[in-house]
Amino acid sequence: MGFVFSGNTLGLLFSPFLAGIVYDYLGYYAVFMVLFGVIVVDVALRGFMIEKRTADKWLEKETNAQGSLPREDNEDNCARNDQAPIAAENEDGTLQPPLADERSSLLHSKSKRSKSWIGRLFPTLAVLASSPRLLVAIYGCFTHTMLLACIDSILPLFVKRTFEWTSTGAGVIFLTITCPSLFGAFFGALSDRYGSKRVCLTGLTSTTISLALMGVVAHNALLDKVLLCVFLVFVGIGLNLIFPSLAADLFYEVDVLAETHSDTFGTGGAYAQAYSLLCAALGAGTAFGPIWAGLFYQKTNWPITMATLAGLTALPAVGVFRYTGGAANEEKHGRMEAPESRV
pTM of the full predicted structure? Predict the structure, then answer.
């Protein structure tokens, strides 16, 4: 997750740097020419993608060419046949259905009647929305993207007003927060090693403290410029610790829900709907961030704006501490660390 979603963070933060330089040297229309070029490359790369359904057809052909089913499939089929319920025979010779099936059908019909209209219309979405762990992950990803959008909207204005920088300088300052995104795979490995909860809380703490301290930067002095760069680096590190751990935890929870609600999810699973909720959160954060930051920066000042952003960053920490990681995941990481602690 850290490697995959590092491209998302890198794109959001690298675009102001590239656009600032292009605008300063080539003008307004050149920025959109670069944008259209990136879109053309993206469409071309998507044309080379191989979908899972197409790949499965190739794998089926190879399997059929080799002969019988794999040994694991045969064992699974045998296990299912052994575990299948056997119908009882009545005195008149007719077959009586198993009692377990009757109970399960009655419970299934009862659960259908007890569901709300949302559960009847969108059963998979209702199950996903009922998971606090999944909702915490979505809200944390929303906060992550909102902070990126806030920084994108007000940081160029701040350095222009305070340091009197041009668009090139306003773009170059984004390198400080962009460079940590290059180590997305490393941050993802930390989440796998130490657990999503610890890594995410570390990222929230680093981002909250750094945003609060950015409020002290207020003068056109060398020390203030250095401090701003240092704080932005720690903000970038914190953001890259938050997003991969929460995104991975979201899909871990989908796997858990798929096991406990297999009848609702079906064979197709719920990854697409979970990812759609994640994309909706990212879109909402991108829209809400500039409005919040721009309004506070216009009506108040830079320190108050940074204080509000720090407060918004600290909000998900309560839910992350309570729900992120899950009991099974935390026990797994605890067992991994136990031998090392004894050594």
Answer: 0.69
pLDDT single digits (tens) 263-287: 777 666 677 888 888 989 999 999 9
**218-241: b or e for each residue (b if 16 or more CB lie within 10 Å)?**
eeeeeeebeebeebbbbbbbbbbb
Q: 144: closest CA among 195, 90, 206? A: 206
Which residues does 147 contact at the CB level (< 8 Å), separation at least 6? 207, 211, 235, 239, 289, 309, 312, 313
Q: What is the 3-state secondary structure (H, E, C) of the chain?
A: CHHHHHHHHHHHHHHHHHHHHHHHHHCHHHHHHHHHHHHHHHHHHHHCCCCHHHHHHHHHHHHHHHCCCCHHHHHHHHHHHHHCCCCEECCCCCEECCHHHHHHHHHHHHHHHHCCHHHHHCHHHHHHHCCHHHHHHHHHHHHHHHHHHHHHHHHHHHHHHHHCCCHHHHHHCCHHHHHHHHHHHHHHHHHHHHCHHHHHHHHHHHHHHHHHHHHHCCCCCHHHHHHHHHHHHHHHHHHHHHHHHHHHHHHHHHHHHHHHCHHHHCCCCCHHHHHHHHHHHHHHHHHHHHHHHHHHHHHCCHHHHHHHHHHHHHCHHHHHHHHCCHHHHHHHHHHHHHHHHHC
Contact status, residue 9 vs residue 181, Cβ threshold 8 Å: yes
Least confident of 51-55, 74-78, 204-208: 74-78
In the structure encoding, which two tokens stand for residue 119, read together? Answer: 């559960």
Distance CA 142, CA 304 (A): 21
- Are the CB atoms for 253 and 133 separated by under 8 Å? yes
First to last CA, the chain: 31
Tell how far CA 160 is from the center of its chain: 33
CB of 214 closer than 8 Å to CB of 150: no
Q: How far lies 132's CA from each of 20, 321, 331, in Å?
A: 41, 12, 19
